[in-house]
Amino acid sequence: MKRNKIVAANWKMNTLHSEAVSLAGDILAKTLKVREVKKIIFPPFPFINDVAILLQETEGFGTGAQNCSQYEKGAYTGEVSAAMLKSVGAGFVLVGHSERRLLFNESPDILLAKLQTALQSDLTVVYCFGEQLNERKSGIQHQVVKQQLSEVLGSLSKTQMNQLVLAYEPVWAIGTGETANPQQAQDMHAFVRQCLEDLFGKEISDQTSILYGGSCNAQNARELFACRDVDGGLIGGASLKADEFAAIVNSF
Ligand code: PGA
């Protein structure tokens, strides 16, 4: 089975309502013709519904949330559940982004609970992971990534794995302008695929899309996406400009 090519826009805590709607419209117009690549936009919570309405009629586009609660419903003031996200048009959710792990102390247990509730609500999960700079410097990046995969994904079934996309995002490359070079990216993506094979078998390993994220832009996307085991990108800063994001989508 052929893996999906995906380029995803993680807008983080950027844009106001009118900016979000116009940016999504521009991205739609500029990437409409690139049918072989799935485009997923992750706006801030309040704009998900309007972005989803804008994109829903068009094949090859999806809308997602940057986070969801680990709880299903109830007295959790300020939280947003996976089912709520689904009900406003989200089809995807990010789980495990390093900003959530590091700034909001999301532990593997919390990430697993989020992942389970998202899957129950029929969202596709983009599970993010990646080593920090000191971990790469001490040469333990493979160990770290293997642990991040097995401790959260290890208990999932093969059926659940079909609802997952992975995103390798080395923390030292996120928002820093420093990108993993194609060799570093390919090396880690091949390693991740091997971990998937060990955990779930060859079929799941072959068909799971693994995205690269971390200062991916219109200049470096082409050589990153040319790597055998890189199936696309999760784009932060460069996804806030429609032209640049479209150029990245066109890099395939
Ligand atoms: P960046 O962010 O492209 O701005 O480095 C990527 C991400 O955090 O998903």
Kindly name the structural category.
alpha/beta
Q: Give the oligomer, counting copies of the same chain as homo and different chains as hetero.
A: single chain
Query: Could you name the ranges where pLDDT drops below 50 across 5 or more consecutive residues?
Result: none
Rough shape?
globular
* Proportion of residues in helical segments: 40-55%
**What order do the helices and strands follow?**
EHEHEHEHHEHHHEHHEHEH
- Ligand roster: 2-phosphoglycolic acid
Mean pLDDT: 97
Number of helices in the DSSP assignment:
12
Over the alpha carbons, how many angstroms does the gyration radius reach? 17 Å
Largest sheet: spatial strand order:
1-2-3-4-5-6-7-8
Number of strands: 8
Distance between the termini: 19 Å
Q: Any key phrases for this structure?
A:
8 strands, alpha/beta, 16% strand, eight-stranded parallel β-barrel, binds 2-phosphoglycolic acid, 252 residues
How would you summarize this macromolecular structure in one to three sentences?
It contains 12 helices and 8 strands. It has 252 residues and is an alpha/beta fold.
Outline the structure in words.
This protein has helices at residues 17-31, 48-55, 82-87, 98-103, 108-120, 133-137, 141-153, 158-161, 182-200, 202-207, 221-225, 242-249, and strands at 5-10, 37-42, 61-65, 92-95, 124-129, 164-168, 210-213, 232-235. By secondary structure, the protein is an alpha/beta fold. The protein has an eight-stranded parallel beta barrel, surrounded by six helices. The chain binds 2-phosphoglycolic acid (PGA). The site of 2-phosphoglycolic acid has 13 residues, from strand 8. 2-phosphoglycolic acid binds next to strand 8.
